[in-house]
């Protein structure tokens, strides 16, 4: 969030206490007095001075030149072009204009263009270096501006080639900025859904969104060697992480491997590799903890759905007891190397982004939990392998000291060779946090598997009966 400064504080106070001065407007044969705090802009048109209000324009009694002299004493009013002065206390959003300068959006949705050469006093008043950092403005709006998202009247899916080029090309008009086009496409779709319409991709995945917008990129010749499906995925993930949109609003399906625990949902057993998910299921049956296998860097869609389900479960825990929901703890099984730790940082960061502010992380795959002979014989030299950028390796070494000060890493699979050891580690490290001590009463995964097998047996007997 932005902090208040002398320039923005003046604007904030003006909006709250309605400071300003009375201005006389013509109302037929009569005169109407309006406080300048309620006026969005003044413009000169056809020799007349007009005041722009929330819902109308009205001619002023005094000429604009006289009004400007008084406006300068109050601050916050600046010309943005010839014969146009706006109230910057009422600014809510700015974006780069397709032609030149900036498109300014005021509280009522009215838009004005700030021409090049008029920025300096505006920037000084707002106390910012760039209009992409306009303050006071919400973080939400800041993200929208940085991603180039605008309120467009026409549906991008039905824009002509010329319209697409005019709307999304660079200032020179030499090329369409595909990332901005795709961000605006996603924003339009989510606005359509938020207006009460059904999601056009409900039950689908990110590919479903790609198939919708693919013909648009074909129209402008952008289906070249660049994989813009990845561009779409990246824009969607960033917008979801910024809380501008959500995968759930689209109704997209999450194929992630996770399950919320019934007895100790606040304890998360997290593995980096999907191959360890069966072990996690067995541990969930024993401990009642929540489990998740990321399969590498966690997908944003999985983090969103996972966190939403976990928050719902924690709310139930809070309702069922007099005590507040318990602290969330991650017991992780990742590779002991820079990438494994970066993965854990990303996952913990995603949980915070999607609504879990307080998280404790306990990494189980650290040198003290390996045997000396494993560390000696089964490590890999991170420096010699060349897979890790030097800066990333230096940061990790400073944080962990590697193995006895050497830049060595360990695969978590070495730890997992002895499943009994890992089970003991989970029970030992998790003991202070388990509300229901293991073993918990019901084994959900095991009983589900047994039930599934029983149904298959019944189906097999039915098939045999009909074949006779």
Task: Provide an overview of this structure.
The chain has helices at residues 6-17, 64-74, 119-126, 139-146, 161-168, 178-194, 206-219, 228-241, 247-250, 277-287, 300-320, 338-353, 372-377, 382-385, 390-400, 412-416, 419-430, 444-467, and strands at 22-27, 30-35, 41-45, 48-52, 57-59, 77-81, 84-87, 91-96, 102-106, 111-114, 257-259, 264-271, 289-293, 328-333, 359-363, 380-381, 408-409. The chain is an alpha+beta fold and 468 residues long. It has a five-stranded antiparallel β-sheet. α6 (178-194) crosses α8. It starts with 5 loop residues before the first helix and ends with a helix.
Layout of strands and helices, then pairs:
Elements: H1 6-17, E1 22-27, E2 30-35, E3 41-45, E4 48-52, E5 57-59, H2 64-74, E6 77-81, E7 84-87, E8 91-96, E9 102-106, E10 111-114, H3 119-126, H4 139-146, H5 161-168, H6 178-194, H7 206-219, H8 228-241, H9 247-250, E11 257-259, E12 264-271, H10 277-287, E13 289-293, H11 300-320, E14 328-333, H12 338-353, E15 359-363, H13 372-377, E16 380-381, H14 382-385, H15 390-400, E17 408-409, H16 412-416, H17 419-430, H18 444-467
Parallel strand pairs: 12-13, 12-14, 14-15
Antiparallel strand pairs: 1-2, 3-4, 3-7, 4-5, 6-7, 8-9, 9-10, 11-13, 16-17
Helix pairs in contact: 6-8
